[in-house]
Structure formats: C-alpha cells, structure tokens
Design brief:
Layout: E1 3-9, H1 12-23, E2 30-38, E3 41-48
Antiparallel strand pairs: 1-3, 2-3
C-alpha cells in the first residue's frame, strides 16, 4: 500500500532535518520525493511503501 508523508519548514535546513529523520527508518521503501516552495515555506512530500 502506498502512503504519503508531507513536511513543511521555514528554511532548507529545517526541512532537511525533518525529512532525513523520517528516512532513518530502514523498513521504508521510498517511491519518490517531491519538493515545492510557496509563500516563504518549503515543502516536501515523500511517497513510500
């Protein structure tokens, strides 16, 4: 089953930290990661199984 996890942050370092912490789980199989920015925020969407 595919799942989605979204992250937002005010800066790149904060977003990197959040995404990397999530990706520390060795049981995840990442399908894709998409990045976007809007109105001063950065966002990431991780699609995984």
């Amino acid at each position: 089953m595919m799942k989605v996890k979204t992250f937002t942050a005010m800066g790149q370092k904060g977003l990197d930290k959040k995404v990397n912490h999530f990706l520390d789980d060795p049981s995840l199989h990442v399908v894709s990661i998409k990045f976007s920015n809007s109105f001063g925020y950065l966002g990431a969407m991780v699609v995984y199984q």
